[in-house]
Amino acid sequence: SLPGLSHDESARAGSADDFEASTRPVRTAYRQQSLRAPWRAARVDSAVRTGLHLGEGRLLVYAPFMDRAVGSVVRLPGDLELSLNLVHYEAALGVALLQINGGERRLPRKIRWEHGFDYTDTGAQLTIRGYRNGRLTRRTAFSSGMRSDVLIAGQVGASSADRDRLAAAGMDRELPLLQFHDGGPGVAPGDTVYTAAGQIVGIVVRYNASEESGLALPAALLQSYAGLVDRLKPDANRSLVIDPGVQLVDPGGAAARRHYGLAESDSGPRLVSRVAATRVRANERLLRGDLILKWNGKGPDAAGRLSDSRYGSLPMAALAGLAAGRLQPPGTTVRLEVLRERERRRIQIQLRAGDATGAIVPVDFPRPAYLISGGLAFVELSKAYLAERAGDGATAAPRLDYLATTVGVAGPERTRYVVLERVLPLPDAENRALRADLRTDRPLLLQSLNGIAIRNLRHLQALIRTALREKRDLVFNLEEGHLIVLPGKDGGAALQALDRAVRARHGIAFLEGGLSAGSDHPSEPRKSAGK
């Protein structure tokens, strides 16, 4: 810190009264549900974050858990609490717009967005404010300029494996972020960053207490996001953050430059190494192997960076879809000069928003689906599911990890990979033998039922019902040549007995959930017919 300034000292301008009048604590309850055993009751946690009042009872909140939210409330002066309705959740930024469900009720005043703040200034004094246990906190910090990184479920800093998986799902959006230091103890994600004059500079998304440094989403980005929601009025969970949907890398050294026939003036081209699975149609004119020489007429420097009038010099990927620091609307056209097969071309592409649900292996399911039949517990494959298994020390078949990193686009029927997560124990010899044979410490890919390839869990549910109606046995074909046969020639009587045993032994209320027709985000568990 600068001499004579303590962490708890704040500037005279922009008083605590101003802060309290334009921000309010927002408490959100959200589900914490096991992806390995989604039939278990979800634990409900809660978090309190600072809500920035944008006017007309609307609040902007950093809440990367909002896709799993049960409900949100805002505390008003006088300890009055009102419920909030979700207007829009932006997964790429981890922020949500909420509306007070209270008719004409208004907060005293709106926040003041920064005006003319120099994001590249590496010494500007900042104030960080938030709510802890219902009380206001204030900390002094200092700007460290801009950098870029990828946000993953509200966390910054992705491993190379994480980046590959996010790229395959089209969710590896690199963002410009404001760095700050000397925040002291008590700074947390969701706190707000202010200038000395009380204007909003950003929202904290990461803070390292031991290093006393952190990162924040810049206010110019947040203000333009709120404006896009007002203008476009999108579906509550449809992303608005656009990008080219490609992964860019350095093409290499002098030998690579000679191979591509690059001129001296082509200072820092970037090679398209991957086109995201969910963005292929939107980017059919930008191909893997293209070299990007110019972006809207501007050539990158030797490090592959472009210059933005608000954020300064940042990697090309971080500034894609931005103009003067602000988000541009979906469908924005970009002019590119590329080198394709050593031939220079001028092309135009339209930038689209990423779609995590469009991949065969999505990043996550906010409410995961499951199906249990005869003790066989099936789930759909997601990257979060594999991460959860790895976190528990469990292993997955190599095939599943490979599928999670390859490119695959879900078709109109929402193709998904279905895996046998486990065989639930039952007190009979056949069940014990089956569990021993399948080595239940790892999931296995389900390939077909009665010779029909499985498209997703809902498809599996329909095939099981059809087979039982036609009094046919259920023959499950798994990877590595495993075969499981469940009785069905009695119309499902024996299978229903097994299901009753599963329910009684393991206390499972419902044997299927999240399978309602047409739902990309699975619904609450429901009791199936005949089970």
> Sheet with the most strands?
8 strands, antiparallel
Q: How many angstroms does the end-to-end distance come to? A: 65 Å
Structural class: alpha+beta
User: How many DSSP-defined strands?
Assistant: 32
Number of helices: 10
Oligomer, anyone?
Answer: single chain
Report the radius of gyration as a whole number of Å.
26 Å
Shape: globular
What percent of the residues sit in helical stretches (DSSP H or I)?
10-25%
Give a description of the structure.
With about 525 residues, the chain is an alpha+beta fold. Helix content is about 20%, strand content about 35%. The protein is built from 10 helices and 32 strands. Strands 25, 26, 27, 28, 29, 30, 31 and 32 form an 8-stranded antiparallel beta sheet that branches. A 6-stranded antiparallel beta barrel has the order 1-2-3-6-5-4. Strand 12 (about 200-210) and strand 13 form a beta hairpin. The chain is globular, with a radius of gyration of 26 Å. About 45% of the residues are buried.
